[in-house]
């Protein structure tokens, strides 16, 4: 569940029922837990994200800079076409590189 309030942090709560294990036949297959197994996280981290509140269908270029690039080389993260508004964008790559600064540019 995701909740948001203007000017407040984003709160995300997740209920884990089983540990996912992708399969070649069915990539969304779930591993059944044995009676003694407990659900477990493989990794916990904060990730960066923000809400876009623009017209659906609007296109944006999202870039970032980090200490790994010397804070001078902007790297394109993605080109995003908003499927809905508001839309929560999450940078899943930021868990391994938490010191990132972002910029967004509208695309024609």
Summarize the structure.
This protein has 108 residues and is an all-beta fold. The protein has strands spanning 2-3, 11-12, 48-52, 59-65, 75-81, 87-91, 101-107.
Rg estimate, integer Å: 18 Å
Instruction: Provide the low-confidence segments as ranges.
Output: 1-30
Largest sheet: 3 strands, antiparallel
Estimate the global geometry from the Cα principal axes.
flat
Strand order of the largest sheet: 5-4-7
Order of helices and strands: EEEEEEE
Rounded average pLDDT: 73
Which structural category fits the helices and strands?
A: mainly beta
The tally of beta strands, per DSSP, is 7
> What share of residues is helical?
under 10%
Strand content: 25-35%
Count of helix runs: 0
What is the terminal-to-terminal distance?
33 Å
Protein described:
With 108 residues, this protein is mostly beta strands. 0% of the residues lie in helices and 32% in strands. It has no helices and 7 strands. It has strands spanning 2-3, 11-12, 48-52, 59-65, 75-81, 87-91, 101-107. It has a 3-stranded antiparallel sheet with strand order 5-4-7, with no helix packed on it. A hairpin with a 7-residue loop joins strand 1 and strand 2.
């Amino acid at each position: 569940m995701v909740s948001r309030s203007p000017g407040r942090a984003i709160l995300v709560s997740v209920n884990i029922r089983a540990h996912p294990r992708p399969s070649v036949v069915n990539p969304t297959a779930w591993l059944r837990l044995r009676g003694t197994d407990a659900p477990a996280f493989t990794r916990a981290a904060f990730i960066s994200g923000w809400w876009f509140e623009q017209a659906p269908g609007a296109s944006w270029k999202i870039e970032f800079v980090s200490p790994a690039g010397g804070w001078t080389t902007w790297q394109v993260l993605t080109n995003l076409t908003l499927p809905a508004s508001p839309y929560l964008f999450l940078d899943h790559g930021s868990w391994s590189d938490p010191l990132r600064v972002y910029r967004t540019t509208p695309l024609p």
